[in-house]
Design the sequence.
């Protein structure tokens, strides 16, 4: 764990790119390090998350994270936090969300296909998180990642999975329909601040709406 701390601090120094090549070579190893009282690299992700988020702003960084299977570790980390979100974890939650969104936005360029189990865990956790919050930034972040994640699947496929049921679908419908309702509030400051995420959601809806009839009906009020 001390090695992870040292590398993380070095990368986040004033000249982070000076050590970027070495960090990338060691990424898979660092993501495998577990604390004494954990069965997953939760604390390693905590220290590395700012670096991972910065890496995934670039195509090569996304490829590196995917090849090391680090994206699965970040998804698992985020899902764990969202099961019981607390104020102290919000910065980490949004960093993890940004990291995952960076990957999803570049999915075509990096030939990224999220695994079904990771996708379903993420959809469930994000819908649950947003359901418990009145914060517009939570709503729009959750909806935008779900909008990108739904590119990988369909309503019929989700409902065949043992970890996704009708209640999961209802939460997802509510999340996406709430995000559309928020987007129609005109030019309020809160809406203007989420313009990029609104575009992600509406673009996603146009791609997969026909594969998700329940979400389509919820959004269109059918």
Sequence:
């Amino acid at each position: 764990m001390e090695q992870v701390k040292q590398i993380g601090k070095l990368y986040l120094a004033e000249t982070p790119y000076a050590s970027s090549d070495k960090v990338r070579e060691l990424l898979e190893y660092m993501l495998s390090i577990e604390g004494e009282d954990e069965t997953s690299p939760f604390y390693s992700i905590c220290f590395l998350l700012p670096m991972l988020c910065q890496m995934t702003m670039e195509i090569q960084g996304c490829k590196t994270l995917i090849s090391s299977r680090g994206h699965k570790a970040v998804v698992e980390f985020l899902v764990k936090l969202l099961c019981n979100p607390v104020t102290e974890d919000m910065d980490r939650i949004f960093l993890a969300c940004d990291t995952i969104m960076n990957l999803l936005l570049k999915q075509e360029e990096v030939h990224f296909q999220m695994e079904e189990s990771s996708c379903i865990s993420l959809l469930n956790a994000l819908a649950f998180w947003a359901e418990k919050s009145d914060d517009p930034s939570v709503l729009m972040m959750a909806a935008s990642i779900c909008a990108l994640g739904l590119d990988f699947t369909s309503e019929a496929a989700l409902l065949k999975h043992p970890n996704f049921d009708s209640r999961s679908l209802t939460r997802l419908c509510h999340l996406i329909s709430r995000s559309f309702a928020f987007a129609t509030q005109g030019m309020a400051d809160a809406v203007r601040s989420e313009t990029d995420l609104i575009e992600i959601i509406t673009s996603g809806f146009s791609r997969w709406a026909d594969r998700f009839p329940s979400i389509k009906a919820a959004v269109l009020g059918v």
In short: The first helix runs from residue 2 to 11. The chain has two domains: 1-112, 116-222.
